[in-house]
Batch of 3 targets.
Target 1
Amino acid sequence: MPVETASIAAMYETALTIRRFEQRAIEQYRLGNIRGYLHPYLGEEAVAVGAVAALRPSDYIVSTHRGHGHAIAKGHEPRLMMAELLGKATGYCRGRGGSMHVSSLALRNLGANGVVAGGMPLAVGAAFAIHLRGDSDVVVSFCSDGAAANGALHESFNLAAIYHLPVIFVLENNNYAVSTPIRDTALVENLSERAAGYGMPGVTVDGNDALVVRAAMEKPLQRARAGEGPTLIECKTYRQGGHHVNDPGLYMPKDELERWRARDPVGILRQHLVDAGVAEAEIAQIDQRIEVLMDEAVQFAIDSPEPAVADFLAEISAA
Amino acid sequence: MAKIKYRDALRIALTEEMERDPLVFCIGEGIAERGGSFRVTEGLLKRFGPTRVIDTPLAEAGFTGLGAGAAIAGARPVVEILFVDFVMLAMDQIVNQAAKYRFMSGGQGRVPLVIRTQGGAGEALAAQHSQSLEGLFYHVPGLKVVMPSTPYDAKGLLKASIRDDDPVMFIEHKLLYMTEGEVPDEDYVIPLGHADVKRAGTDVTVVTYSLMTLRCLEAADRLAERGISAEIIDLRSLVPMDTDTIIESVRRTHRLVVVHEAVKRGGIGGDIAATVVEQAFDSLAGPIIRVCGKNTPIPYNTSLQRAAVPSVDEIVAGIEASMGASIPVR
């Protein structure tokens, strides 16, 4: 398989892993094994997959409340993710964090975040630490249209810009901040226009095509690694469902949803594979591999022990 | 050993820690070129350069979060927020992000962040530049809270705070910057969570911190003339709190007065009183008295401002009240 084809195949595999992971997580939620909030990344897979495909392992990401896709793209193991969602001792955060706080410092994912735009200043700070050490790593700060009206986003844009920090703000414009459409909360056509106010480049790209997203990362990465500062990439995409697992999303017009489903990011990557000459049978093997991985992930999470209350109490009394 | 100002002691602590660890950096409003509103960071820019001594825009949430993120990624930031009142702009980053990161990540992460700020009334700066808000941070699990009263403590505690792996709210008092005290030249660290008995006494325990320590000492001098021996405990750090020293003292004196500038309602004094009741109820010979700030925003007018926070007279009266209401010790 040529290098580029192998790369597309890997991206397809990651995107489908995210898709299936979310579907399994929703099943586990319905069974009552996952509690609290669960914000599926369904329909937005191409953004995480495309952005992270352009990174080195030592680059950081800072995620959002809708963070499972970012984590899987950054190399998190689905079984340890699922265990965290089930609140188990074997999860990435030993059951202390749950869906909204999945992180792995070893994989340089500084974490999902329960506060919209709340992680963005942390991303700028991680970039500052890189700058202080004189390293050439980059931080991808995932954010959303919901964050676009929040002060933390604007302060983060400005700080990253004035200190020329190696941050790439990847803004997932999925059209809705919980239930409010972006046209009601922003008067610009493209949120990337916000970048100009901070003296940094801003581009808007098709967020449902992972190859487009990956290509859009190239210049911003060069710029960041050269110490020239941040870039804003707005990825136009769509949340194929409600805000969280218990939100039926009745405010989302049916025809709008259908239009976006016709441009499904996993389907688009699959088509890229077909176009690259990969046989259906080979693609089917990937699909099959993921099913097995998901079965294992769910079983591992279910079989894993609960965190011990005694350990928790000992930890907090020592703190 | 030289006699130096509180603000100079802080600067020496920053300098020593920046010399010691290249990942320590200082960031805040007007701290580099101008050297800070209270001249604590004067000269640091020249010595350590613009990568480690950084002026910020007036964006407290942004640069405080920058500090937290840099800390998570391995640096040791000292973020300066000009007034504790302005820390309110950065509360999400402090309370929801920095304070919880270590826990939420299941112990993977560390946030070695120091937020230096200053509070308190006394310079006619009115309601939005004079507050004592330590109780807010005291209430949030995951934060440490340090409030030194002397140049010696300021240096040793700031150094300990910078070396600590958890976020520390380091709250100075605007009336202390020009106070002087003996500070040894050598590198010393005062571990967090150790109260200091600033004056030993036998009749009544007075627990306090920050500027009020100085007023309590003055009150103790006056009471000594009348034959009352007050023990003055300066907590130095509120989280972690040295309750052992408080309890041990109350078991000897059988009386407790708590003094702080922050408003009484919901204040730390109530928590200290409750702790003593829980752990040393049988030692108490009288009611616990709290001498605290009034439940009011700080007024501009100087006479009104003075009336809003504890004076030496009020502290003396509070201590006398604790003695006068005494009942026989069991």
Target 2
Amino acid sequence: MSLTPQESDYLEKKIGRKPNLLETQIVAAEWSEHCSYKSSKKHLRTLPRKGARVISGPGYDSGVLDVGDGYVVTVHIESHNHPSAVEPYGGAATGVGGVIRDILSAGTRPIAILDGLRFGDIENDTHARWLFKNAVRGIADYGNCLGIPTIGGEIEFDKCFTNYALVDVASVGFGKKERLIQNRADKGDFLVLIGGSTGRDGMGGSQFASDKLESENRSAVQIPDPFIEKLVIEVILNARNQNCIKAMKDLGGGGLSCAISETADALSVGIELDVSLIHKREQNMSPTELMVSESQERMLVITSPEKLATLKEICEKFRVSYSVVGVITDGNTMEVKSEKQTVAKLPSNVVANAPLLDRPSSVPKYLKHISLIEKPETPKNLSRTILTMLSNPNIASKHWVYTQYDHEVGIRTVIKPGKDASVLRLDNGKFLSIKIDGNSKHCYVDPRQGVIGCFDEACRNVICTGATPIGMVDHLQFGNPEDPEIFWTFKESVEGITEYAKYFEIPCVGGKVSLYNETDDGPIKPTPLIGVLGLIEDKPLMPQKAKTGDLIVLVGITKDEMGGSEYYEYVHGITGGRCPVVDIKSSKANQCAVLETISQDLVKAIHDCSKGGIGVAISETCITNDIGCHVFLDKIPSEKLKYDELLFSESHSRFLLTVNPSKIKKVKSLLEKKGIQNETIGKFVGHSITFKNKTKLVASVMVDKAQEKWLNSLGSLVNHG
Amino acid sequence: MHHVLTDVFKVESQLVWHTDNLPQNIDAIVLPGGFSYGDRLRAGVIAAHSPVIAEVKKMAEKGMPILGVCNGFQILVECGLLPGALLKNTSLSYICKWTEIIVKNNKTPFTNKLKLGQKIPIAMANGEGRYYADKETLCLLKKNNQIVFTYAEDVNGATMNIASVCNKEGNVVGMMPHPERSAEQILNPQDAKPASLIFKSLLNTLGVIA
């Protein structure tokens, strides 16, 4: 909870005196890595942020995208890793709460939650299982109670997350463009703190999150109360409708310290507040505690003197506590008082803008030896390998998780969780498709190609529903940035995202950086997460059931890219090799062509080919359609590969199309006209999932057996160990 | 629920605040789902003491059609309008999934367009949705034809797979699964028609359609 000596010097020079203890604490909260992005900010500037649909405003906590007809969609992503690693239930729940308030801050109603979860090896690690179980319950209890559907996400297990947890939450909002909060303030406006009372929970949470996880600092973990959050949402939206909100900020990491300094800085105003006016849940809290507490469910609203009475009325109607804590002043000073005595006075632009760092970086040494691995021998019984892959917790169905989440509430969820991407209907007749993807295994083997792959996968997932990507968010999670090797992986990731986003013209509308994700066992693998939003103007591709005789068309080429694959890692315990590389030109061509097959109504369903490769993608299609198939490995467009590589390579830019025989000619001619690599590799038939090479049987599993493995593995692991 | 009533089935409906009086000249009351008071203490128990519930009880006595869905059902049970209790699911988890219910009583204001034994694909979403009744109550439920829907499978350990019950008179119906999530084809992965008949039954009761 302190500043580095260099930062102290810098601060003294800037304010021309020694700061007092409270001032130091305020600045330390705001200058924590978590709040200030001091290590990452310089590099994040390369990300393309502009686009035809992007609406940006001062002080927005979420990205805003215009979806036409006077409506906007907002999106934001955050993590709550450190707290969730200590107290998974509360940590995950408050993670949901925090990101939802960011959506609310823009003046939009949160309409969906997605989460990305990562834990250690749950098959062998009971602690990881406990973390997983309780994080899921925390998200479920919080999101369900709010009446906001949790519509999707992704889950990964890897030993690098042992004794740790990555809990990422993305939220989507929807509203009218004209009702977006304008975020302006004038002298004499009031500062109103609305919602939960302030207590001693989450003390110094942002600094706790900006250090290695060494001790279980429980007082740094926040306590969730979803019912108050629900009331706060309704109060804020009511107040928005009655024009009571000139500006607004969620209280998250760094508590009031950050909210006040960032608001004053973003709106170029001064703020004067008295902490003794705050409604509290504990007595004798010091000004410092009040300024850095991260108690949840709090919003800071700036309202005009004329509207204050209406705002109070709305709070009272919903029985939500509030306190008028300060006023807007001239200048750019944030002045904190307690019982009318000034206890801190700082220029807000100094507080809100930490001195940025130029961290050194160097290529990690590990990369050299993991590229040199010997290929494993092809298993004799590939049928058994397919079943093993289907019961791999990283691949098995996640229905044990998403059936605990109310994913239907709000009746917008047209395509439900468990598919490539979930789809929500919007009030203007359009549809929003959204997916988040991460892959720490690929990113470890090649940080740059790994993240490009995640981006490509998220795009492919929304494309499978018929959506065109319109924006993305990223969440960059790494270990200690002071380690040059780790910092190099961070830089590579940012460059990878930038390259892909620029080529595909998908603007980055929001994101977050989370560093210091490490325990005594070491850092996590680089784990950037990419969320992609897609818009469907007309209607989504509702997957239709595959019937006997329907054909399986594979788009894209399969390569010798086994590095970081689930097959290498899970079946053979190998980390290394060549990670899948996206050829962005052909990937874009594939995506456009596939979208055209959808718009021309030529396909029954599309499934992305990713974790577990063709073997898994085809099995999943058969399992969910309750039908078998005959697939010919010799038909797969590929480099010269072994059977196991053909089945499990995770090469990107591939799609599996289910096509009615009557439409196959049209599909083929469309793809061929565009020069897209594709082949009809088999058809749906019978009750077994069968892979052949010409006439030779390579692998065959009964659909019901595959179903059993894929559907029940995760649930029985968690319930029965 | 409000959207489905007004936009899909064109029923004139309005939301009523928990401390307000019921509007004059209403024909039916629907208590929708949600987490009233965050399910604190026990689902529905605090809302059962809301001022508006006193009036709902009066209307129930007068024979007005009243439907409670999910948390609405829990409130109706907690305020004594419906028998039995709703306990935590046997999995101890929230369960959100699609299932099927079977019509057991098609004489209520909300089921009169359905056939006995008809199956309805429907969404369920609850944590405390396991219907429980003691033997005596169960006998009465059977005797008075108060079981309205049962699940086609054992979803949460409910007594006799009960998904919905009504009062003795049949005008107050509570159900755990969500007809309002299941009555539009775009949302229902199977067939939305059967669930829509629950609303059409209401329209029928109100004399809007034959």
Target 3
Amino acid sequence: MSEIWNLFIINPMTNALLWLTGTLGGNFILALIIFTIITRVIMLPLNLRQQRSMMKTQEMQPQIKAIQTKYKDNPQKMQEEFAKIGYNPADTLTGCLPMVATMPILFGLFQVLRLVLGTTPQALFELTQRVYPWIDLTKLLPIDSTFLWLNLGQPDPLYILPVLVFATMFLQTKMTTPGKKKDDGKKHKGKDESDPSAAMSQSMQYTMPIMFGFFSLSFASGLSIYFILSNLVGIGQGWYTRRVMAKEKEIQAQSKKLQKMGMSASSDEAAAMDGKEATAVSETQVAAKDADSAASDSNGSAQQSSRKKKKQSKRKKKSKR
Amino acid sequence: MTADDQFIYVAYGPAILSYDVANQQEVWRYSPAETNPPFFAPPSVQDGRIVIGDYGVSGGFLSPGSTYTLYGLEIVDNRTVSEMWTDGGELSTDRYVGESTQVDDVAYVPTSDFAVLAVDANTGQLNWRFEAAGAIWSQPIYYEGTLYVTSLGKSVYALNAETGDVLWQTPLVGAMSAAPVLNPDAQLLYAGNYDNKLHALDMATGDEKWVAEAANWIWNAPALDDGRLYYADNDGFVYAVDALDGSPIWEKPAQVAGPIQASPVYADGRLYVASTGDPKEGTGLLVALDAATGLQQWQQTTDSPLFTTPVIVDNVIVVALGQIVNDLLIAYDLETGNQQWSYNPTPREEGN
């Protein structure tokens, strides 16, 4: 097991960091920054999917709860109803994937920093056994482990990094977990008690940052810097996903509006509106083009429904004639 | 591990112990009672006095950073040890890895925080501090008022032992964890380097006189005897060269299984080489070679890798194992390689 861990996690990470350090003229801190960004970018699709899934599930909660209550004695029917609203309980499990996938990187980096900074003879000896032949370790050593007031292989003596780890992780969690709707509290008093997942995500907003902030007191500063950078990327990702989902909501609201108008307005008006809305929809699609297929699905259904309305109004006209 | 007369002194993880080879028994064990720090550096022993630094004690969960302490100990009648002084963690902000050198009443202490410290060996008072360009894991070597120092910062230094002033500095390509070896007759200093070379420098000026090649990093100091230099590398090769010009003596280098971190030891026409053995097996190896030809005479496999230079005491060669599987120390007959005794320090309540 340890050989597999070394072969697929520790050795590639160690060599990637060393290679980056060499490429960047021996600047280890810059190498660590780029390494963090690369790992976050690799994880981005998975993270985005998780965040979208969480937010959608959160929004569907009232419907999910209603179905659960209604069909509590008929699991098969419950699943069918879930499918109708586009909810798949298995998504809750796949939502954990990004966190599970980042764990090896996190644990690995803990080991890799100790190795790469080679602050002890044992670590340096171990490093020589792991370095790929194309890395010139003789040239790279000794790796400069100092950055500002920090020794990257040791904890921050001024406690600044643990505070930053806490703050950035708190913000990241805030950005990437679904917000608590204000009216929910009024409509469903004691909702958190009856909705464990929401309660859990709310408590995670505080417990995770506090936990990691405390850990950072004894972590090597290099690892704390990885956390901070990683959290900053996460904050950016959260902001982006929220923005895309807001656009989607806008689209859905517009399509609902269209449906209502199609019921009441004349066919000519509907056709005229249709053109405008279709343009608006396509513009929004461009803005949110890489967001997800769900968005395009909803756009498609909006366009389909307006086409149906057009046909219906034409048929009405013909029948009047 | 160091030796003095019939005693060997081992810094092994939680303590320093003295072992009487002649009587095959542990004499004393020292570990600071409150902190129980790990020790890595070989103890420097002179005139019943030990100077050693520890590997650091963490400040605890809420207190980042570690404290690294330097100790002065006194051996009383070879039976017990007592603490003379400590620096209270004031002198270094990083680990003590290399062995100190004591000359008269001054101890020259290498530190991982890029410094050589000259301290009063009786009081711990700091005389001077020299800052190098990298960590110093090797023992500083003293000769006639000059201190020769190699560093991971890729330079060899000659310092005025009285003041710490730099007399000369020679930058090299690779880092060095090997202590320099002096050949005053030839006015040469030898330094094994991570650039796969053994460098011979002029002791007076630091100018490079010649280099001898190796296949991989040279971790530790060469052995010098009778105009010959023996050194080993990280690929397990052992070399013999002429100490004056670096020309090879053996037809081809001898090969030992596994990377070699310890210095070769020469005695009575034999060269003893401790290796880390096969990393996958997790075993170590002690090999005796004919110093004239490089041909193997005997070998012994140990339970764990050998990182430490063996010592020869009382007609046996003693190795300290990297991890205690069954034993900490094993002694082998110099001629036959047969195991003579072994010693496993039984766990006990640490403290003075």
